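[INFO] parsing input record for Gustatory receptor
[DEBUG] input buffer:
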Amino acid sequence: MVYLAVYRQHRSIRQMIEDLDQIFKKFPKCKLTRKKYPLMALFLSLQVMRICLKLPVYFLDPIVVASHRTFFRSDLVTKHLKLPSSSSFIVLQTCELLFIFMSRFTLSVFALYYSLTCKYIQVLLQNLIQQFNNVCMCQDLKNLLCVYGDISKYMSTMDTEFSFLVFVTVLVNMIGLFWSGYRLAIHSDISNVYFLSLMTSGLFYLTHQLTIMNSASSTNEMGKKLKHVALYLPYRFPKHSQEIKSTLKKDFMQDNHLTVWKIYEFNRSLTISSLGTLLTYGILIGSLGKEI
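[DEBUG] output buffer:
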């Protein structure tokens, strides 16, 4: 589902990148190299770890191999689907593994894109705050307000285009994190390789979830901080206070923030609540599983 949603939005993603590049040209002193490389290295290392640990589990772990062989030797496969169990075992197992890698890779690409975009918006807002504090000329202030208008429209478009996709991505990460933790807690007779694979899978989902939610929350906080600074601008330029106030009402009074499918605004409390929800349901389902 995430793969199809990302594919449908590929034109919007490309257009958003071009629009963001146009805004950054108005701030030639902004340097983003240090912002993007650590995050890219983190996502790449997680992908490599998952591949290195998933392959031995799928093809060498005795429990996983036995469950797959049982399925492919069942009547559903041999009689109803009429597939030769001996030859189809490795082929279908490989196809399943490729599908998992493709879906996880797509998830990582979108999470990386969304997080980096939020980081870039934070850099723009931080530069605006600094220039608002140092501005002395009214004409320079008008130019800065126009730039903020562009950033505000960009955030509104970004939330409109990707709020549902972010909701699906966060939901998939929460389900994957819960399922990895549940299998670690319930199954005690697993091999060391399978244990490391589940740990890496849980770390994979947790990193994606926290990266998306924290980056969006920080962007919203930076936007509120900028709005707070802008409210004092009319008092610094009393001769042009009416004109500045009209501009502020047009751009700053609108609630342009990043949300989860237009339902919840990203903030730190939402991040903590999501982790608390996983922990609560994990304890409940784990207790029920032991009683049954």
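[INFO] The chain has eleven helices and two strands.
[INFO] shutting down worker
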